[in-house]
Amino acid sequence: MRKTAALAVLVLLIGLAALAPGQSVDRGRRGWVAWQRNEVRGGNTDWVALVAVESLDTCREVAQHDAASMFRDLQVRKEVRGVPVAAVSYNGVSIDIEFPDGRHSTVSNTCLPQTAIDLPLGRRDMERALALARWPHSDAERERFHRQYLVGVNGPTVENWAVEQVEVITEFRRLALIAEEHARVNDMFGRAGVQEAEQALRPWLGRLSNRR
Fold it and tell me: Most buried of the four, 1, 73, 136, 173, by CB within 10 Å?
């Protein structure tokens, strides 16, 4: 029951994350988002939105096609972002990548429902995230806000490690975290408009991260 509840919360938070740049689903229409999940064994897991579509069947086709194409590409290039690959395998669902230093990474695509929102973050959304980091908002308010993105899992022990908690970082929350860092040094970040916020978020557009 605990795992089911945690998964439900995680799916909800994923549904609030950004689509790939330039992608959107009409507001009020139920859509599906193909996500790519990249998990480094013993490390962080990164989620990247691939595309938003209207039907689940289309989403599955896109997810499978992307995974197969990525596998073929890895077989030819034998490297990931400049890092050599020792071995790569594909079981039709996920890609397992082994690096020369013994590290393993698993890449899998999945489809999740999303209630449509306008993306990227609008000016008002950015202003809300920036304001949360400053007075008159309190530390207690910020703690309550961030607690929504912490999901207790208490998973089983596998190979001497277990996932106890998942921390999800959406674009909105990432901007709030960035603004809090600037608020600690009391600089002028984001006080003259949202241009600095847009620039700070640019590397993270369409990305959802989780930390364990």
Answer: 173
Q: Helix count (H) and strand count (E) of the chain?
A: 6, 10
pTM of whole model > 0.70? no
Please state, in angstroms and as integers, the Cα–Cα distance from residue 196 to each residue in 21, 57, 58, 175, 181, following that order.
18, 39, 37, 11, 14
Categorize the per-residue pLDDT at 15 as very low, low, confident or very high, splitting at 50, 70 and 90.
Answer: very low
Give me the sign of the Cα torsion angle 18, 19, 24, 27. Answer: negative
Tell me if 23 sits within 8 A of 49, measured CB to CB: yes
Rounded distance between C-alpha atoms, residue 183 and residue 205, angstroms:
22
* Beta bridge pairs of residue 114: 31
135: region left, alpha or beta (phi > 0 left; psi from -120 to 50 alpha): beta
Specify whether the CB–CB gap between 172 and 16 falls below 8 A: yes
Burial class (CB in 10 A: 0-12, 13-18, 19+), 169: buried
Which residues lie across from 89 on neighbouring strands? 96
Cα distances (Å, whole numbers) of residue 92 to 59, 89, 159: 16, 9, 24
Q: Rg for the chain (alpha carbons), in Å?
A: 19
In angstroms, the CA 110 to CA 50 distance is 10
Q: Which residue has the higher pLDDT, 183 or 24?
A: 183
